[in-house]
Amino acid sequence: MTVSRTVELDGHIIDSGMMGQCFGIVMDMNGSFEVEEFEVGRHKDATSYCRMRVSADTEGDLQSIIHELHQNGANPADPRPASAEPAPGDRVVPAGFYSTTNHPTEVFYDGQWIPVDNIEMDCAVVLEEEDGEYTARTKVLNAIREDDLVVVGEAGIRVNPPERPRDGSGPFGFMQGGVSSERPSESLIREVAEALVETKREGGNVLVVAGPALIHSGAGDALADLVREGFVDALSAGNGFATHDIERGLYGTSLGMDMETMEHPRKGHKHHIYTISEVIRAGGIQEAVDAGLIEEGVMYECIENDVNYVLAGSIRDDGPLPDTITDAVEAQNAIREQAHEADLVLMLSTLLHSVAVGNCLPSTTKTVCVDINPATVTQLLDRGSSQAIGMVTDIGTFVPTLAEKVFEVE
Amino acid sequence: MTVSRTVELDGHIIDSGMMGQCFGIVMDMNGSFEVEEFEVGRHKDATSYCRMRVSADTEGDLQSIIHELHQNGANPADPRPASAEPAPGDRVVPAGFYSTTNHPTEVFYDGQWIPVDNIEMDCAVVLEEEDGEYTARTKVLNAIREDDLVVVGEAGIRVNPPERPRDGSGPFGFMQGGVSSERPSESLIREVAEALVETKREGGNVLVVAGPALIHSGAGDALADLVREGFVDALSAGNGFATHDIERGLYGTSLGMDMETMEHPRKGHKHHIYTISEVIRAGGIQEAVDAGLIEEGVMYECIENDVNYVLAGSIRDDGPLPDTITDAVEAQNAIREQAHEADLVLMLSTLLHSVAVGNCLPSTTKTVCVDINPATVTQLLDRGSSQAIGMVTDIGTFVPTLAEKVFEVE
Amino acid sequence: MTVSRTVELDGHIIDSGMMGQCFGIVMDMNGSFEVEEFEVGRHKDATSYCRMRVSADTEGDLQSIIHELHQNGANPADPRPASAEPAPGDRVVPAGFYSTTNHPTEVFYDGQWIPVDNIEMDCAVVLEEEDGEYTARTKVLNAIREDDLVVVGEAGIRVNPPERPRDGSGPFGFMQGGVSSERPSESLIREVAEALVETKREGGNVLVVAGPALIHSGAGDALADLVREGFVDALSAGNGFATHDIERGLYGTSLGMDMETMEHPRKGHKHHIYTISEVIRAGGIQEAVDAGLIEEGVMYECIENDVNYVLAGSIRDDGPLPDTITDAVEAQNAIREQAHEADLVLMLSTLLHSVAVGNCLPSTTKTVCVDINPATVTQLLDRGSSQAIGMVTDIGTFVPTLAEKVFEVE
Amino acid sequence: MTVSRTVELDGHIIDSGMMGQCFGIVMDMNGSFEVEEFEVGRHKDATSYCRMRVSADTEGDLQSIIHELHQNGANPADPRPASAEPAPGDRVVPAGFYSTTNHPTEVFYDGQWIPVDNIEMDCAVVLEEEDGEYTARTKVLNAIREDDLVVVGEAGIRVNPPERPRDGSGPFGFMQGGVSSERPSESLIREVAEALVETKREGGNVLVVAGPALIHSGAGDALADLVREGFVDALSAGNGFATHDIERGLYGTSLGMDMETMEHPRKGHKHHIYTISEVIRAGGIQEAVDAGLIEEGVMYECIENDVNYVLAGSIRDDGPLPDTITDAVEAQNAIREQAHEADLVLMLSTLLHSVAVGNCLPSTTKTVCVDINPATVTQLLDRGSSQAIGMVTDIGTFVPTLAEKVFEVE
């Protein structure tokens, strides 16, 4: 006995690899398929359409195949309405809840296709009704409240993976995992600079995710310049980043009175603690800027230029600074807002914060990942933007070169 | 004009490298020294003694040199009493506060040498008086309360770096940063097993710090065995570790009813979320064990055998589980307690949690760091236990081999 | 003005990704295409066919696009005969020589399609005539002789990239670059063992490429077992591998007279030199085995079981052993022969030798790459077998586990 | 029964760590010691002296300890003359031959201390007599000829490990294995530039060891500048480096006629082969420069400025170029000469060639290792210069920055 179901794909399904992947999935999972209708896009602006009947030996196998096809953009030909059940409790999902991909998604409910807002991976989809109109949005597990109407099963859901840009993808490789440390850096950095300038020109939002190595390696001034000149809309970092940045302003260049009692700059960790202590005494970074304690650096420029920043706490932190959000769930929520607004994300030498941001990004956001460790870059690219650049290089030279090129291009 | 001060070293200062380091520090920092008295330990159980006059061009330079010597165990010959000042506010240290090393430390105050309790790096030392008796202990910045009596300056403080063990250091290299992936693993793992068994035989405390890769790589059963058999006193991990462990028990091997609705195990992330959801519904891990939901695995054994565990939250977490401590400061405090009680720490394939634990360890605690990434092992060993083993190997084979050898040796 | 040309694709061009790639290439290179005919394979055993007209602004652009399409299996619809020119000198190719891919290739010459023998990347194709019949084979640059008939241009050449296996690719991912250190090792190693046993059962040839870390990490005995039991047809290694293996037999376990004069096994490098010296004195490895000097180990088993071995020299070598081929070109030729005969290649903890072997492999040979360094595994997988497994793990546990499973499965 | 022997140390044995290491060795190897005489250097320019009696349970244990002490600079107090035996054959050493360290070494023979020329690790020491005068020099195994007079045993040999520089070691850390990617690059690169300029000012010899990544990453022009301006005395590289460099000159920037027939620069490997082919046709690099084929680049500047270069072959090579030394032993000999003449060695993004050069260096040569892979840097630093700098950074920015600073400093 075999069971079967019909699915459809449409759009630029050939060059985006969707159709090939779908054929491959069926075969890898020991199913079979029969193409019932196929219309090829005859030129690059024409879309293709494929309707195929997928068969498997058991209903379970078929469901597995359909699930996988679905994640890759093949949707059932006969959309039954989506099902939804109330959440059994706060932070509890009903059995069989639909878990999102990071691709644009729609739900067929109450007789129409409803787009899912704030798409992000591994979330539940919650339906909300107001004045007889339904809207849909993602919710992470801890945001679920008892009786939220949660979509279950896979019927009535349409996933739209990104398509290959028609006019070349520019520096952003389409769906490419490859990372090379041997690519000629200068020209690639220029292309990133151009993408950044163009994003801003179009009114887009640039989010910088940065780790403390950025400051250690001397790239703080260049990032501060980018913030001052308006090329950064939001900063996502941690307590260490902010402390190093402020400490560098306080102790790195001037030789004030405090330097004398602090004595020995060789093993600067004491400065680190003292910096935090002084900011705590002031009441926070804004207050420390207002009081004239902080006069330069990335955080200073964020304050002066009203750039939104999130400092997420970690169990490695000293202090922390009063601005640091120590609760992981609260911090995630703040990061989530930044991620949802971003059009271009620069992930600069931090795995932890980049993963946290990346978890909240839809597959349509452009990302640039830079780290000296190839494993970090690979891991970040694997998470799934369809338009991503990975560079294995020294952050201490990348950021100044980027800033230089941004100001040239501008 | 030159200024000078006299410092002393005693103990096994030659083979522990202290004396060589102190000579080197003076020269590297452009000072000079004059050995006023030197008594060499003529055999391996005899200690040596060195008193030397250190000179520099300026008081500032001299202070820098003395600070550095001090960190390495050279103490002023004429101990003046330590100074202390009240903290100007909650989480604020007085200017010039003394910032600790991770070596055993004493403070000369109120006419006597007081040992500093709970020694750990980058803390302040707080003096407390009760019935006219002073005690001293470390406090991290966020534990400081207004008017705490905080030691300032470096006078009256004695640091005692660990000495090379007289009878060979066994597998734990003394003060060695070197990490090799080429060492014959079998025999080294046996030595770690022997150290673990011996620690337990002597009533010591074994802390395991573990990352989710341990579960992914199939080493969960072996760790669960070690917990069940009493070789683990505490577990320090994260939300991901616990969720993967529980999920594996729930979905990995059995084929319960839920499996059917959950459909496709290929991209298990949905299981991950559902596992957390079900534990939340139960009320927590203990409750889920009591209810029979969790019947095996590392967390199960921790519950059944009353093994203390800390699950520290992170901004990468899904969920999280109710047991996860989401506040970074609370989580650090819980980790700190684990670290202070440990005699032997196994750091298994997690950089984040290992650094958090390592930050709280005195230099005298034995540590074993295992990771497939040499950079992780190097970073952990650099943090400063004097008795550490680093192994670059696959955690999925290390833990089962370790468990096997522990049960053989036992 | 636009210029255009018609190309064809046929076979399993959808699921193998060829058609998607070809569409993508045209767009990325700013060309356009018009699909003139398209027949989809309606089920998994049916092939597809696509004929499309590709256009570009200039003849140069078009050539570039056609070249790239060609490398990916799109062949001109109207095959003109291939051109060929005599090589102008020894080790000199004519301008515009055709440089091979590692995919099966045919040349249209003298009125028929001639398969190219010994396909391997970055070679010239040389046509040879005997009794009026032409044959074609690859030649590396240094094998070219004056007046060799070398194919030039891209006309009349058909490249056939491998297609996705119809019945799932087993453990060998089809065209996947991804490497994971988190995959459950045990089951994957079992699948490799099964592939190895199956290869031998079908009369195939297994080539092991091994680095010295294999011996250091204690996996020598397990590899020797595999050789003894007939699971290895050829060994490709270096002077270091063989020396470590022999040295281990000579000094590692026994305590002969030489041990006493050699004194201190702690820094064994002297053993290393002395081992080579003694094998030189004997006249070579075969002679040293005959004389009873070498009584165990991988090299011993290779001699005893007539397993072909190539020891390629390197500028890092000590000695070297008389068996080591010190000339790089000669060594490459020997490696080339091994590679051409292999059906399954295990690349074990050596980048240098694995790259050398990989350079000579057609894309149809199955490869397994194992190294503790993820960058090494990634680099090897990138070179292009269509059926490859990469594992980031400790070679010291991989080989013994593999051997165990091979003997179980057998 | 215990056996014992007396050893001496003198020089700056405390700050160089020698004395501490020697004490440690005795204890780690379960021996004991009795310091018979000790004179401490009372200030930084005064040397220390230690005579100690070392005891162990068996003669074998004692020999092991004495061997290890000896490697670290502790020499027998009662130097017996060295023994020497004729080599039993070409490339065969007598049993018990003395295997060198990379430290300056003397042999007591024929009544006097003879310095060993061309000191390098893992060699034999050969004594040669002329007019009744003995000289000593190192020979690698394959240079040994029958009847060469080879030193055996450890009597009569004095090893002198380098001492810590009295005036600070500048950027070159003394005996430090540590490598950091977080150090502020700019200032460190400046210090390297200063060391380079100073070496040339003092008439020293600068050897650059370079891998192909240097060209890929766009740093070729900067290295060519350094060669042209006389800051490089010798270049040690491989076939790939030279080919990439020449190919870049030929195809990278100009758009000559050949470009048209070569068609598509996207996958440049065909250029690579064709470049080699054209240089072969010319007869070699010198001839290709003379003929005007090569007009720029690193190799061009080497030819024009009479900079000695060695291109060592490898089994990974295409071609190779006629200048490439394909025989590993010949190539090693050429590298050995370069290494022996060098005062400062820059190892730039190549593990293979750097190890080959490093094997031939005495411990007194300054080395700078730069690679994006921390494991490469660590491995190179471990090999033992006492004055080494390791930097984990992108070679594509390091070399241009270095060149810029060299021209500034000059």
UniProtKB/TrEMBL annotation, chains A, B, C, D:
It catalyses: L-ornithine = L-proline + NH4(+). Keywords: Lyase, NAD, Nucleotide-binding. Its EC number is 4.3.1.12. Residues 4-103 form the LOR/SDH bifunctional enzyme conserved domain. Residues 104-189 form the Arginine dihydrolase ArgZ/ArgE-like C-terminal first subdomain domain. It comes from the Archaea. Pfam families: ArgZ-like_C_1st, ArgZ-like_C_2nd, Saccharop_dh_N. Residues 191-402 form the Arginine dihydrolase ArgZ/ArgE-like C-terminal second subdomain domain. GO terms for molecular function: nucleotide binding; ornithine cyclodeaminase activity. Belongs to the AgrE/ArgZ ornithine cyclodeaminase family. Catalyzes the conversion of ornithine to proline, with the release of ammonia. This is Ornithine cyclodeaminase.
